[in-house]
Structure formats: structure tokens, C-alpha cells
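Human: Respectfully, please carefully check these C-alpha cells:
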Amino acid sequence: MMKKKLQSGDLDRTAHFYHQQTLKDNGGDYLNALDNDPYASVPAARLSSRGDEKELLNRPTEVGVETFAIRYRDDVRATDQMKIDGVVYNVTFVTEGEGRRQWTLITAKRKD
């Protein structure tokens, strides 16, 4: 059976994107800070998810990696964070989906 092509009606949730800024404090140290307001809130679709378990601090912890699709945007970066359904994700990879400038595919890791 052939896989169904992604359509705009499949975008069933809202993704909020935040840029991460590198700031320098008074002591000369660099800090990573997120913008308070999202730079974009767009419809999104979850395409796939896979979870792994790693041992962190001597206890098993789930690490979820998920792939989302949004309408084409060229301002999403691999250093951004996004929030979908109350869950925060660190964006790890951004690529163009099928069709010329039709979709942006985002691979993100769930933030613990």
C-alpha cells in the first residue's frame, strides 16, 4: 500500500517556535537564553516518533525523538526550541520536505 501524501488538513496541532540566544553576562560567561515570546505559532503534524531509554543519574529515562511537519518556513533553526501540546522539544534537524518549498520537516528531541 502506498503511503498517503501529506496534506494541509493533516496539520492537527499548533507548534510554537522560540529562538535561542547566546548572551554574555557581567562576568563574561556565555549563557543560552530563550526568547519569552514565540517568533512563530503555526499548524503542525506529527509524522513519527521513536523513544529510547538511557540511564541518567542511575535511573532509566525516556528520550523521545519525533518528526514534525509544518508549512514551509526558512527561519526555523536547529538551535530553536518548540512547544507542542504543552511538551517542549529541542530542534535537532531541519530539512525541506516533499515538493519545492511546500513543507519543512523538523526532527526534535523531547526536553526533560
